[in-house]
Each structure stands twice: as structure tokens, then as C-alpha cells.
Design a protein that fits this description.
The protein is of the alpha/beta class. It has eleven helices and seven strands. Helix content is 40%, strand content 22%. α6 (131-141) links the parallel β4 and β5 (142-157). The chain is elongated, with a radius of gyration of 19 Å.
């Protein structure tokens, strides 16, 4: 199978229609917890008119919609490199939410400096090869006393494990490639804490959370993994021969059904981190 460039707006645009399913629901769970952590450092629901939130790599709106429901008076700017990913947010017609196509590595150029009280970024940094550059941009657009809040996929991931175990039942020597373009992408609390402190943030804290990633039956998982065109899934399958993909499907279906209770026991893990400027 061909490889997939996770940083490409075209690839994420293709998967936008499917993204708000299981991935979107899981992102919403982690977004709720990330908002709690950020709120402890600086309230999101402050009555102050200067509370301005930036959601970087907003996707279909996990963070943006969480804040919009919990703090309807707080202004949120949701940005993403792929315009179609923002359509779910725009369709809500929320008075306190705006959307804009912006590259995370060009925040300062597009949005200016010292503008936002909170900057969120969920599951986007691992899709680019220069995450440190993007985090520096987030710091620069943040006001003094503002909060950066980031979520990353952790080292374990349920759907990735189903694929790997299935293929290993055919070829025990098979090893899952990195699902990200950068094989050294941050995936641990230690790595995220280090990077947040490196840009100058204080009161840094991180935690790993477990979230359900359940499917209503194995066939729903098969549709997600093989049919949703999620760039990370395509990347995981990139080192398996295309001519043997049907053989892999049989094995993956068997693993999902027998080892993950027909898809109902699937979980995934995320790393969350916050810090204050």
C-alpha cells in the first residue's frame, strides 16, 4: 500500500466525513478532561471580555464544541489546515465560535501575537514533522498568564493493536510502523512535559487517560479501519503488501471478534498536558 503524508490537508479533507465517528467521540472525551485541566489554571468561563480561546487543529470540533456548551459567553476561534474538517463546527451556527483555515506553523503570521487566553491543540501535533515549531507558535499567540493545553495519542492504541495482532497471526515477524510521519513523534507524558517546559511554560502537568473506542460489531470496525481513509490507519498498513490485503482482512476480523468482544472492548489512550505562560 502507498504511504500517507499525515500533514497533508488533502488527506484529512478526504477523511473528514468519517472523522466525527469513533475518533470524534473519543476526542470529545479527552477534550472534556483537557478543558477541566486548563480551567483549573485559568477559568474558561470567566466573565471577563478578554477570554479568547484558540483551538488549533480543531478538526470536527471536540474542544470547540465542549467549550461552546460549557461557556457560551467565551469566544472561540477554531482553526484547521483542512477546511472540510471545520464544516461540522460551522454548521452549528454558534454565535461565540468562528472558524478559519490556518496552518499551525503559521499562527503568528495569520493571527498576531499575545492575543489568546487559552490555546488548545488535540491530536494534531503528531500529524506534522515539526511539532516544536507549532508549539512555539502557540506560545507566541498566547497572552501572559494564558494557558496552553495539548492532547496526544499515547503509545498504545486499540485499533492499531487489532491490525498488528491480526497481521502477526499471518506473519509473526511483522512489526507495526509508526502511524506518524515522524517516527519520534511525542507519545508520552515525559516527552510532552519536557516540550511544554522548553518553551517557557510554568505550572506544567501531564496525565495519561484511557478512553473507550468501542464499535457496534466487528464489521463496523472493519469499515472504520479499511474504509474510512483515516491517514493514520493508512500509514499503519503501509508496510503490508497490497496483494495480501484480503488475507489481512480475514485475520483482523478474527482478532477483533475473538480478542476484543466483537469490537466492544476496544480502548485507546491519550496523553494530556497543560501549562501557563
Amino acid at each position: 500500500m502507498s504511504t500517507s503524508d499525515l500533514s497533508s490537508d488533502a488527506n484529512w479533507s478526504k477523511s473528514a466525513a468519517n472523522y466525527s465517528g469513533n475518533v470524534g467521540r473519543t476526542s470529545t472525551l479527552s477534550a472534556a478532561r483537557l478543558c477541566e485541566l486548563a480551567d483549573k489554571l485559568r477559568p474558561l468561563s470567566s466573565s471577563s471580555v478578554d477570554t479568547q480561546v484558540l483551538d488549533v487543529g480543531a478538526g470536527t470540533g471536540a474542544v470547540t464544541l465542549t467549550i461552546a456548551s460549557q461557556a457560551p459567553s467565551t469566544s472561540v476561534l477554531a482553526t484547521d489546515l483542512a477546511g472540510p474538517m471545520l464544516e461540522n463546527i460551522s454548521s452549528k451556527n454558534l454565535s461565540n465560535v468562528k472558524t478559519q483555515v490556518v496552518d499551525a506553523r503559521q499562527l503568528v503570521q495569520e493571527l498576531g501575537t499575545s492575543r489568546f487566553t487559552h490555546v488548545f491543540c488535540t491530536f494534531m501535533l503528531q500529524t506534522i514533522t515539526t511539532p516544536a515549531e507549532a508549539v512555539k507558535e502557540m506560545y507566541t499567540v498566547l497572552k501572559d498568564g494564558g494557558v496552553v493545553a495539548i492532547a496526544l495519542w499515547a503509545q498504545r492504541n486499540g485499533p492499531f493493536e487489532v491490525w498488528e495482532r491480526g497481521v502477526q497471526s499471518i506473519d509473526p515477524s511483522y512489526r507495526l510502523p509508526s502511524p506518524f510521519d515522524d517516527p519520534h513523534a511525542w507519545r508520552t507524558c515525559t516527552e510532552l512535559e519536557r516540550e511544554l517546559k522548553k518553551i517557557g511554560l510554568d505550572q506544567v502537568s501531564t496525565e495519561e487517560v484511557t478512553m473507550p473506542f468501542a464499535f457496534d460489531g466487528t464489521e463496523k470496525f472493519m469499515e472504520f479501519w479499511f474504509g474510512a481513509k483515516n491517514p493514520a490507519a493508512v500509514k499503519c498498513m503501509s508496510n503490508w503488501p497490497q496483494e495480501r490485503i484480503e488475507e489481512a482482512k480475514v485475520a483482523v476480523r478474527k482478532v477483533c471478534k475473538e480478542q476484543y468482544s466483537d469490537g466492544k472492548d476496544l480502548k485507546t489512550w491519550a496523553v494530556l498536558g497543560v501549562g501557563r505562560k
